[in-house]
TrEMBL record:
Protein name per Swiss-Prot or TrEMBL: NUDIX hydrolase
InterPro entries attached to this UniProt entry: Nudix_hydrolase, NUDIX_hydrolase-like_dom_sf, NUDIX_hydrolase_CS, NUDIX_hydrolase_dom
Organism this protein belongs to: Metallosphaera tengchongensis
Hydrolase is among the record's keywords: yes
Gene3D superfamilies: Nucleoside Triphosphate Pyrophosphohydrolase
Classification via PANTHER family: ADP-RIBOSE PYROPHOSPHATASE, DIHYDRONEOPTERIN TRIPHOSPHATE DIPHOSPHATASE
A Pfam family: NUDIX
Matching CDD domains: NUDIX_ADPRase
A single MF term (Gene Ontology): hydrolase activity
Length: 141
């Protein structure tokens, strides 16, 4: 691949709980992460957040605030992910073909989950009060 792939994520809170999906496909199969995916050609970031969230979780959202910019360099690919705090505005929670499970978890429950490293870092930095947006870089070999 000669260029980075652009992706978006949707961080959705219900009171003190955050929505996570258990990924169905590689590269993070069976790991828990926030819902999201690649931006399609000609699609705005806002449209991509709405589409990906609906596809993976059944929820309709409105992206509100840029939370984090995440770069992931991993064997043969480079992602730039823009994660937005999104407001839930409708829909019915259910997993899709890209997600094995979807569920809201408390901060305390996250320790029991196999989270992607960037999801864990992003949520911890947020809960510790770090100013947004912040950047996270993961380089794996």
């Amino acid at each position: 691949m000669s260029r980075p792939l652009v992706a978006v994520g949707s961080v959705i809170f219900r009171k003190d709980r955050v929505l996570l999906v258990r990924r169905a496909h590689p590269p993070n199969a069976d790991k828990w992460a926030i819902p999201g995916g690649k931006v399609e050609f000609g699609e705005t970031l806002r449209e991509a957040v709405k589409r990906e969230t609906l596809e993976e979780t059944g929820l309709e959202v409105e992206p509100r605030v840029l939370m984090a910019i995440i770069e992931v360099f991993r064997e043969g690919y480079h992602y730039v992910i823009l994660d937005f705090i999104s407001e839930e505005i409708g829909g019915n929670l259910r997993p899709s073909s890209d997600a094995k499970e979807v569920k809201f978890y408390s901060r305390e429950e996250l320790d029991q989950l196999d989270l992607t490293s960037t999801t864990r870092e992003m949520l911890e930095r947020f809960w510790q009060g770090e100013r947004m947006p912040f950047m996270i870089t993961e380089i794996s070999k």
